[in-house]
Design goal:
The chain is of the alpha/beta class and 332 residues long. The chain is built from 9 helices and 17 strands. Strands 3, 4, 5, 8, 9, 10, 11, 12, 13 and 14 form a 10-stranded mixed beta sheet that branches. It is globular, with a radius of gyration of 21 Å. The two termini are 29 Å apart.
């Protein structure tokens, strides 16, 4: 059978690892794991499911020394918290936030959401900006009442504007040679007796987005009363590698800290049954003296969470879990 010849320019797919083992594989394709760059990434879910924190965390990984631009349409971002989350993700660059106040006739006035939204989109044209986060398109509200129809007459002005922006963002990411990501944070409104419905953008946004992930809490208060929680990221759409509703990844959140790679690795091991969860976490390790694998105590879960917030001091401890995942993968 002869080799296939491929002629012409193709979309340059490049991936970056998030450090979250299962999520990297859920977003990967045939052994090439991680988030595809030059993508429009829609991350949605219910309130307090970790959407913004996960977006900042992943944005920090694109270029640890670059610039991340945030359009804070909700007005809820705290400088100290964003800085802490991104620093703990290994980021040492610059965080820029769209101005929400402007001077008009000598007085301060609130800038329209369109202007802040446009700032985020325009920032992607700057070489040093590696990621833009619009938080959130669910809060976006345009002041323009009339716009081109674009075949979306029933969508409403808000969805039309988001859909148009999605076309432009997707087109720019398609042609740029620089590794970038654009995040849309979206919401789900609860329906009585139902899963709920996600907020604006319409069909165009869904088609334009390269990645669509639903984030949902699956385990709260680990340990009890701490506020820590585990979330599951379901990859509902992935253009670079195909769509698979069974693609799932985990992310462990620690209040005031952000996403913990180390604790996520622990729970990836638990999900794969190479570790056991109880008051004490046990990990399957090879016992040289006995010549076989046995469950070995790795410590109480609360202690592991505390140590995960100072990972450089406890590298050897969490390397055990990372090595177990690598061995699991090698064994198929």
């Amino acid at each position: 059978m002869s080799d296939i010849k491929f002629i012409g320019d193709v979309y340059p797919v490049q991936r970056i690892a998030t450090g979250l083992w299962s999520l990297d594989r859920a977003l990967g394709f045939k052994g090439d794991n991680g988030v595809p760059l030059r993508s429009l990434f829609e991350l949605y879910g219910h309130e307090h499911s970790g959407k913004s924190t996960l977006a900042w965390y992943i944005a920090a990984k694109v270029n640890p020394n670059g610039t991340v631009f945030i359009a804070d349409l909700e007005g809820t971002i705290e400088e100290k918290y964003v800085t802490e989350v991104m620093r703990n993700a290994g980021f040492s660059g610059t965080i820029r936030v769209a101005n929400y106040i402007e001077a008009k006739k000598g007085k301060d006035a609130l800038r329209p959401h369109e202007a802040q939204f446009q700032d985020a989109i325009d920032s992607l044209l700057e070489q040093d900006v590696s990621a833009a986060v619009i938080d959130s398109i669910g809060m976006f509200w345009p002041i323009v009442d009339v716009a081109k129809d674009l075949g979306e007459r029933s969508m409403g002005q808000r969805a039309k504007t988001v859909a148009d922006a999605s076309r432009r963002v997707a087109a720019w990411l398609r042609v740029t040679e620089e590794p970038k990501l654009c995040f849309y944070i979206n919401h789900v409104h609860p329906n009585i007796g139902g899963r709920g419905f996600d907020t604006p953008g319409g069909q165009t946004k869904k088609f334009a987005a390269n990645i669509r992930v639903w984030l949902q809490r699956i385990d709260n208060d680990i340990p009890e009363g701490s506020g820590n929680f585990l979330a599951e990221a379901r990859v509902q759409k992935l253009k670079h590698g195909g769509a698979n509703p069974e693609r799932k990844g985990l992310a462990f959140f620690i209040p005031g800290y952000g996403v913990s790679e180390e604790m996520t690795t622990v729970f990836d091991c638990i999900r794969l049954k190479i570790a056991e969860r109880g008051a004490v976490i046990k990990l399957l390790k090879y016992d040289v003296k006995k010549g076989k694998d046995e469950m070995v105590s790795m410590g109480r879960i609360g202690d592991l969470v505390e140590k995960a917030q100072e990972p450089t001091k406890h590298v050897a401890l969490f390397d055990n879990f990372a090595d177990a995942l690598e061995k699991y993968e090698q064994q198929g």
